[in-house]
Amino acid sequence: MSISKDLLKKYAHLIVCTGANVQKGQTVQLTAAVEQHEFAALVTEECYKAGARKVNMNWTSDMKNRLDFLYAEQEVLAEVLPWEEAKMKQMVDDLPCRIFIVSDDPDSLGGIDPKKISAVTQSRTAVFKPYRNAIEGKHQWVIAAHPLEKWARKCFPDAEDAVDRLWEAILKTVRVSEDNDPVAEWDAHMKNIKSKAAWLNEQGFSSLEYKSSNGTDFRVELIPDAAWEGAGDVNPLNGAAYIPNIPTEEVFTSPYAGRCDGTLVAVKPLSWNSQLIEDFSITFKDGKAVSCKAAKGQELLEQMIKMDERACMLGEVALVPKESPVNQCGFLFYETLFDENACCHCALGIGFKEVLPDGDDLSVEEAMERGINDSVIHVDFMVGADDLSIDGIRPDGTRTAIFRNGTWA
């Protein structure tokens, strides 16, 4: 790999100090693939330099995960062992700063029965969800990326230098280069995103209408007091500002669960549970996905929508202009962290209660009563066609163009 160690250190510093914003005395939970051990060491060192009390590691392996699904029984894989649940309980007690370094092979579970994957995922997430609910809005976290060979080969199948090319693209999208100050770049970037969110909040829109020549024709109702937000957030327990996704280009909110109609046509493949869903659309009626079509991954898409009784409802709408640095890279990343930041997207599943004025103080049930969806999944899919138009509609019926031809109007 030709990426210099100094550049990797600069990236690791950005992840720890701007993304997660690790505070003195905090415990950090770092998740990374076993092949990433060298970069994980750089991130760990940056955490300790920032004052971390302890860095705990969660190692992952695509190969091991595939072998589990190939050979182990579904009931065995679905079981959550006592030590696994004890780790989740400890997380609730510690409220660690969590850092995820993703590098998944998009095809690592190719050929595995989608029903088996969905059943295992559904069973395990049902056990883990109460613990995740307990820490929501009470800790800092960030997802960033590190390319590995199989992911890079998926993006650049004919390139001998596939890993280097993916590294260059990642560093471009996260605004890290040899001769810049990425922290300053991100400060300016976040100010721009916040200005877009502020404008949307001033408009008082009650619904959005999407139209595109590819067949997208969709209308969704917004929660009256839900705010549009940029990608930055603040831990209310210690006041630490953090950025959950690096990269990020979105302005987002949670729509009113169960109040949308029409069809959304995806413009990019979706990688879910390490399998691909391609050329697909989802049709909603009375707020629920009632049908879907996919050229590839039809059964997987159907399983996803049925993960629980509210997986068929939307939890997020997000606006991303086609000028996004991710989109300008000109290729599909096969990783939602990047592809969702290439263009406008929506998400099936759980919404964000923090978009409500008092959201951090609400229980899951209270947030649901206010219109926030709840589910075991949150799956983003991209709908931002080059000719996408989005109108904001106010309660009195007046409307204002938000997007035209895939970008801010």
Question: What would you say this structure looks like, in words?
Answer:
It comes from Ruminococcus albus (strain ATCC 27210 / DSM 20455 / JCM 14654 / NCDO 2250 / 7). Keywords: Aminopeptidase, Hydrolase, Metal-binding, Metalloprotease, Protease. There is one protein chain. The model has no long low-confidence stretch (mean pLDDT 95). The protein is globular. The protein starts with a helix and ends with a strand. The longest helix has 22 residues, at 114-135. Strand 7 (233-234) and strand 8 form a beta hairpin. It is 35% helix and 26% strand. The protein has two domains: 5-173, Thermophilic metalloprotease-like, CATH 3.40.1830; 202-229 and 249-408, no CATH class. The chain is α+β, with helices and mostly antiparallel strands. The chain has 13 helices and 19 strands. The strands form four sheets. Strands 5, 6, 10, 11, 12, 13, 17, 18 and 19 form a nine-stranded antiparallel beta sheet that branches. A four-stranded parallel beta sheet has the order 2-1-3-4. It has a four-stranded antiparallel beta sheet with strand order 9-14-15-16.
